[in-house]
Structures are given as C-alpha cells and as structure tokens.
C-alpha cells in the first residue's frame, strides 16, 4: 500500500513531473489504497493539503478566477498557490449551456485567445432570427431585440469544449486542477470562518460502510475559498444559508429555469454555421415562461434546447416531453431532421437577476459565477458575466493575499470583491434589465410588452424594481386547480425519442452501490402530499427519470429514486413543493459526461 504521505502536493509534483496535476492525482486516488480491506484498522487518515486559494468548480467562472490570479502573479512577481477541484470526471464533463459567447470578459482575461490554435472559439454568429411558435405547426418571424443580436460580434460554441481549453490554459500558468473530486463539506475554523472544503470519500457502500475499494477524501484548506459550483451548488447553498447572505443583501428569492439540450450532427447541405435562432411561444402555455434556441456550431453540429421557467403552475407539465414537442415543430424540425443526435443533457439556470443576488462574500471566501446568479436573461447569456465575476474575485483575492499588511496566516477579507463588482460593467448590465424577467409573471403577452418597454424605452432607468415574490416551488397548483394534462405524442425515433434513449446519450453514470446523493428529509411526504395533491410532480419536472412511483406488494404507490440516472440538473432541489429533496454530490467523477455541450 502506498503510504499516505505520498498523496501530497509535493509528491504529486515530484513523482509525476510533466503530467497534468489532474492526471497524477487520479492515479494516486485509484492506486494509493487499493490494498485496503475497508476495516477501521486499515483505513488511512484523511490527507490535508493547504493552498492560498481554493476554487470549487472548473467552469468558466472558477477557471477565470484561477487564471486571473496567476496572471497577476506573473505581472507582480508574486507566488499565490491556486487549486481547482471539479466534480466531473474531467474539466467540461458537467458543463452544459446553449452558448452564444460574448467575449467581452475573455478579451480582458486572455487577450491573445484568438491567436491560440487550440482555442475552440471559431464560429462567428452571422445570422439572427426570432420566431414566435404560434401553434404546433405555424410560426411567425419577429424582429430580434437589440440585446439578443449576435451577428458579427458573438461566437457559437460548445461551453464544455471552452472549459476544457480554459483548464489547459490555467494549468499552463501553474494552477493545480483536480478533476473527479467533489466538494462534499465546507470546513470551518474555530471562529466560524470558511477555511476550505472536504472532498468525498470513495468506496462507501449503500449501507454506509466502507467497501474494499475505500479511499478517504482530502481536506483542502485555503485562506480564500471561491465557490464556483454553478447554479444551485450544494456548498454555495449551505454558505448562503449559514451566513444569511441573501438577507444581508436584501435579495429576493432566486428564480430558476430548467434547460434541456441536445447536440446533433446534420448533413453538410443542412448546416448553416453561425446561424442563431431563438423562439417563444409553443409548446409553453401563455402563463408559462419558456423559449427555445437553435445554434449552428462547427463540424456540422447543431445545438438546440428548450428552457422552462421553474415557476410554472401546471403540475402536469413534463419537462422532457415539452422538449420533444418543441423539436417536433416544423420550424425546429427542419434544422435537425436527417441528422444524428449526439448528446442529451439538462441543467437548471438562475434567472433572478440583480434583485436575487446575495451578498457575494463571506468570512474566508466568496461566491462567483452562477453560484451567485449573474445570468442576463433578456440576452440569454451568462458566461461573460460569470467570467467577469471570477476575474474580479481573483483580483480581490490576489490583492488581499499580497497586501503589505496582511497576516501570514488565516482568512482574508473579500469584501472588496463585491465593491469592485458593483462598480463594473457587469452590475450596470444587470441593472438595466432587472425588470424584464419579473414581468413575465403576468403572462406571455404582458411580459413581452414590458420587455419591449424595457428594451427600447426605459433601459433600466425606471425608479422601480419588480419583485419575484415567492420561491418557484410555491407556484405549483394542486390538481384540483390545474388545467387538463397535455397530450404528449409517442416518439417517432427520428427527431423525438423516449427517455432511456436520451439518457444513454448523456453518458451519465453512477455507482449503484453508494449512498444516494439525493437526500429526502421526510420519505413519507411524497405519498401523503405530492402524489395525491400534485400528481407526483417529481416524476415530471425531472428530465432524467430519477423519480418514479412503483406499486408495492400491498398495492400502494411508493416513490422509488433512481439516483444513478441523475444528470445533476438540480431541478428537484428547486421545484419540490414540500422542499423535501436536497441535492448533494455523489462520488467524484460520476454523473453526465458531456463533450460537446
């Protein structure tokens, strides 16, 4: 058995010089404790590693923070150690976004990105379209609002590919990236400040006991912990609650949407690289916020997806089936028919905007990117704002750690990060559109009128700010007040598919013999309340078939959780009417395996 001391940063660097740190660490994880029999006497102690900055999440925001710190180090001749952990099996494996990238933040972060032959940002948008899908078979072209126009300035990309490229750039600067390691628990100091994160143990059975493959997680301690987990991150939500960050900022409840996406490869004659299409209307009802996108990428690929606001009221809505209805519309179908579906996936996104942003700093760290919620909803863009927040957090961390009067140990004050962000173009951009998304609470047509007034006339200068009101889960109506269930057609196997087929294309995988990462606080509540009152909405809002009701030997319906199907979208953490489900991380390296999303 390899001794514990070998699993240290120095050992990784010395023994695997020339290899990416993530590769070296994965080798250590898989082999260091292979001889352990899982008994208490042979289980090794948890390793501890210390850094100046720990970043949780290797998405655009987290990697931007890490890169910014290291480029600042180069400019100032300083040394700040930076570690990034990522729960996906590799950087980009859990990144999903229907992405038309605005490069404003990237231009600041890596000014030479266009000269990098490895950079996957190649396809410049050359056509904008806005469609109103007025019925299942008819559509009307609308003017594209100025904020949504991408022609000649934005790029159609796969964000998972962009994240992998950014990861390589970060490692070249000296950032240590450990993919396949999920942040399980926040570590707190004696005075309550955040001093790092503990990663998951590996090899714990469903019964909670260590298996023969057991290996302990690692306690990663840092003077600054940046939480960049993306929307509804489990550690971020814990910190927001523990330090009352939403109350401290006077923020509204966050509001969310679920985005379901596929990537197709189509014939050359059908491919229109750089084409950007957005849709409103069908299949959403007039009281449901929703819309679609179709983006023609590189290599004959087309990305398309459908977004549904999770403040929907109808308990009969099945998000996966709504996506199938969207694809079947003639205006959408023509872009993909004759092609091959390559990948499927889903993810929640935060749509609350400026009024839902919590306080961004806490003792020992800060929230960056979608952990806080910087999506510009009218633009349908959030990558540039997430990257900007990461850059500014990185700058604040660097300055705090290298200031002449800073103590050599202990946490540093990250309040300057929020102050700087509020003076930046990011804050101005979100302030200008703050009242667009809340206006759709009144329905589609009033929402469009409000959005037009904001876009063309008010532009954020109005003295009022609309409120979101309640959390999304509280909008769901009971069956007694709901309209009739929609009629969903059988899949045709050409552009529409059944759920198992789609799930296979996500590449999602979880070890069946591990504790469920979907924690239910009151198991009987589903049968007592969710099923009779709401028709079991968890079986419909989940786009992966994780939740299903099965009949037991006494003829009673019992909820069964297929945790192995999970796409890590986190809709269940948002939409369950009883707030009875908490999403946490499974063993690191598990979940979906996105390559082109």
Automatic annotation (TrEMBL):
Catalysed reaction equations from the record: a ubiquinone + reduced [electron-transfer flavoprotein] = a ubiquinol + oxidized [electron-transfer flavoprotein] + H(+)
Question: What are the protein's UniProt keywords?
Answer: Electron transport, FAD, Flavoprotein, Iron, Iron-sulfur, Metal-binding, Oxidoreductase, Transport, Ubiquinone
What is its EC class?
A: oxidoreductase
- Source organism superkingdom: Eukaryota
- Bilayer-spanning residue ranges: none
SUPFAM superfamilies for this protein = 4Fe-4S ferredoxins, FAD-linked reductases, C-terminal domain, FAD/NAD(P)-binding domain
How, per the record, is the cofactor bound? Answer: Binds 1 [4Fe-4S] cluster.
Q: Which cofactor names does the annotation list? A: [4Fe-4S] cluster; FAD
The keyword Hydrolase is assigned to this record: no
Listed EC numbers: 1.5.5.1
* Residue ranges of domain ETF-QO/FixX C-terminal in the record: 493-595
* Domain ETF-QO/FixC ubiquinone-binding stretches: 256-349
Keyword Oxidoreductase listed? The answer is: yes
Biological role: Accepts electrons from ETF and reduces ubiquinone.
Name of the molecule in the record: Electron transfer flavoprotein-ubiquinone oxidoreductase
Q: Which organism is it from?
A: Volvox africanus
């Amino acid at each position: 058995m390899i001794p514990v001391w070998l699993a240290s940063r120095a050992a990784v660097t010395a023994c695997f010089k020339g290899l990416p740190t993530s590769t070296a660490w994965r080798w250590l994880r898989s082999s260091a404790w292979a001889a352990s029999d899982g008994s208490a006497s042979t289980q090794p102690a948890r390793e501890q590693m210390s850094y100046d900055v720990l970043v949780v999440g290797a998405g655009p925001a987290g990697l931007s923070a890490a890169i910014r710190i290291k480029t600042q180090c180069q400019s100032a001749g300083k040394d700040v150690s930076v570690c990034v952990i990522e729960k996906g099996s590799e950087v980009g494996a859990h990144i999903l976004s229907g992405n038309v990238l605005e490069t404003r933040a990237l231009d600041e972060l890596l000014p030479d990105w266009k000269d990098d032959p490895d950079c996957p940002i190649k396809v410049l948008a050359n056509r904008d379209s806005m469609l109103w899908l007025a019925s299942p078979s008819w559509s009307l072209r609308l003017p594209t609002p100025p904020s949504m126009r991408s022609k000649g300035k934005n790029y159609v990309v796969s964000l998972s590919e962009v994240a992998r490229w950014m990861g390589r750039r970060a490692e070249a600067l000296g950032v240590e990236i450990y993919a396949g390691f999920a942040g399980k628990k926040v570590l707190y100091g004696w005075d309550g400040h955040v001093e790092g994160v503990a990663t998951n143990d590996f090899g714990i059975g469903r019964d909670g006991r260590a298996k023969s493959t057991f290996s302990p997680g690692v306690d990663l301690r840092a003077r600054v912990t940046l939480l960049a987990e993306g929307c509804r991150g489990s550690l971020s939500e814990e910190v927001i609650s523990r330090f009352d960050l939403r109350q401290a900022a006077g923020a509204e409840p966050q509001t969310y949407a679920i985005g379901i996406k596929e990537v197709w490869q189509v014939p050359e004659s059908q491919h229109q690289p750089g084409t950007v299409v957005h849709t409103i209307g069908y299949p959403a009802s007039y009281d449901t916020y929703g819309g679609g996108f179709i983006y023609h990428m590189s290599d004959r690929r087309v990305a398309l997806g459908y977004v549904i606001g999770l403040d929907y009221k109808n308990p009969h809505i099945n998000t996966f089936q709504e996506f199938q209805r969207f694809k079947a519309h003639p205006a959408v179908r023509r872009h993909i028919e004759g092609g091959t579906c390559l990948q499927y996936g889903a993810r929640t996104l935060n749509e609350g905007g400026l009024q839902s942003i919590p306080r961004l700093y806490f003792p020992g760290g800060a929230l960056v990117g979608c952990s806080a919620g910087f999506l510009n909803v009218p633009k349908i863009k959030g990558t540039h704002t997430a990257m900007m927040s990461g850059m500014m957090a990185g700058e604040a961390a660097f300055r705090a750690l290298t200031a002449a009067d800073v103590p050599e140990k202990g946490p540093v004050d990250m309040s300057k990060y929020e102050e700087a962000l509020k003076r930046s173009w990011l804050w101005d951009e979100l302030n200008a559109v703050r009242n667009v998304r809340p206006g759709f609470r009144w329905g589609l047509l009033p929402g469009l009128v409000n959005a037009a007034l904001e876009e063309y006339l008010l532009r954020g200068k109005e003295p009022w700010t609309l409120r979101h009101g309640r959390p999304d889960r509280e909008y769901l109506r009971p069956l007694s007040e709901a309209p009739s269930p929609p009629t969903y057609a059988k899949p045709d196997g050409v552009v529409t598919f059944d759920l198992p087929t789609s799930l296979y294309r996500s590449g999602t995988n979880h070890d069946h013999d591990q504790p469920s990462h979907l924690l239910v606080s009151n198991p009987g509540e589903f049968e007592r309340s969710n099923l009779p009152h709401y028709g079991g909405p968890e079986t419909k809002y989940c786009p992966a078939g994780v939740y299903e009701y099965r009949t037991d030997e006494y003829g009673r319906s019992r909820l069964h959780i297929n945790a192995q199907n999970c796409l890590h979208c986190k809709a269940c953490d948002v939409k369950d009417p009883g707030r009875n489900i908490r999403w946490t991380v499974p063993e690191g390296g598990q979940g979906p395996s996105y390559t082109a999303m």
